[in-house]
Structures are given as structure tokens and as C-alpha cells.
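Predict the 3D structure for this chain.
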Amino acid sequence: MNKPLPINLIDFNIGVGKGKPLTINGEKRSCPFCNVGTLTDIIDTKEDMIFLKNKYIVLEPSDQFVLIEGADCNSDMNLYTPEKMTSLISFGISHWLKLWETGKYKAVLFFKNYGPLSGGTIHHPHMQIVGLPVIDPDLMFSTDEFEGIPVATESGVEINVATRPRIGFSEINILVKKQFTASDISSPQAYETLSALAHYIQSSVTFLKDFFKRENFSYNIFFYLLDGCIRVKLLPRFATSPLYIGYSIHLKPTNLADTAEKLRTYI
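Done. Predicted structure below.
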């Protein structure tokens, strides 16, 4: 009898999940992130950004947090000023690293859902941070998923188009070569690197939206720590291939070189 493959398995509280607000598909419902006066458990604010505890803890066990990116419900990263984008990335990474540094968690997730195929429920631009005390971090990703065709390098940050994608199609990797602690983020030394990272993320979002030109286009952004260095992966989201869902077969598109060249024009 075959030995079961090791996987990360965590409980999802269906009862809590059913109570979550849903605005991602354009439903005409009240947006909880627009009603700032009703928000509770606010931890920190910066400009019009808000970092707070997630009201709906669906993952058990976990600590879940939300980073509301700004006051505009219909904006997104491709529309932010460069200064706003750098401020957002710095704010998010700072709180992400602070949670890592508590030592309470085996893993701390930092990610963004955008669009109806992204797995999110709220349309208002936001990111999420999740602390997981019981999980195997070695099963979360493979280091070769960050390999790719080089596109550009700036201030110790590299961007490439993935040649070993997690799922398939035009996945974009961004690699930060320097190590940072939470206290480093506000330093002048970190600003140049974080500005380059923010620029590459923003350019990648703009590129993906323009490249695919689909109504209700969706994407995810995932942040990782690998040997103390930040890694970022951007994935366009579609109906996931049945080859991946059923057989874990990853798809590598044949136009990667063309995609890398087109992305280069956005950088």
C-alpha cells in the first residue's frame, strides 16, 4: 500500500465562512472596509491604510489579519502613485515580519486576492496576513518555483518570468537579495530596495491586467521568506487546469520568452 504523501492540512470553519460578507462579484452589498467607523480591533494605521484583526477566523488554528490598502473601494495597485505603492508594501512587510519575529508561528502568510477567481470575497483592495502555529513550512513551496527568465534588476531586487510555475501561465517572480528585519523597514537604507520591490509589483500588476485584457481579471500576490530573503510571486488566475487539480501536472506556456520581453517594457 502506498504511503500517503505529506501535505499541510488545516481546518476551515464552515460556520464562520458562511457569515463572511461577499462583494467580490459586484454584489450590491455594504462594503465593510468602506465603513471605517464600524471597524474593530484596529492595530495600526498609516495614511489611509488600516491594519486590523480579521473578524472572520476561518482557519483553525490561526491568527488572521487584514491590511486595508486605502479608502477607495474601486482602486487597485496599478492606479496607485509610486509613493503610495512603496508606502503600502513597506507597511505590509513591516507587520508581516513582526509576526514572524514573535516566534509564535511555524509560518506567516502574506498575500493578496483580487478578482472573482482569486479566492477572495471582498472587492475593496486589501491584503491578508495569517499566522499559522501548526503547519510544515517545508511543504509550502519549492525553491525552484522562483527560477525564471531574467527581466530586470534594480537596487538588489530581481524580477523574472517563472520557468517552473506553481500552476501555470505567466507567473512572475520578484526576488529581494537583501535580508530585512521589521525594524529595518523604516530605515533609509531599506527605502531604495523597497521602492524597487514596490515598482516591480506595481508594474507586474499593470502588465498582467493589460496582457490578458479580460473582464473580471483576477490575480494573486504571495510573499515568502526564503533563507531570510523576501520572495514574491504574482499569479494570474483563471479556472484552474484540471490537469493540475486532478494530477498535480504544472503547465509551462510556450511563450515565456515573449512574455518576459513584453514585461521588460513595463519595468
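The radius of gyration is 18 Å.
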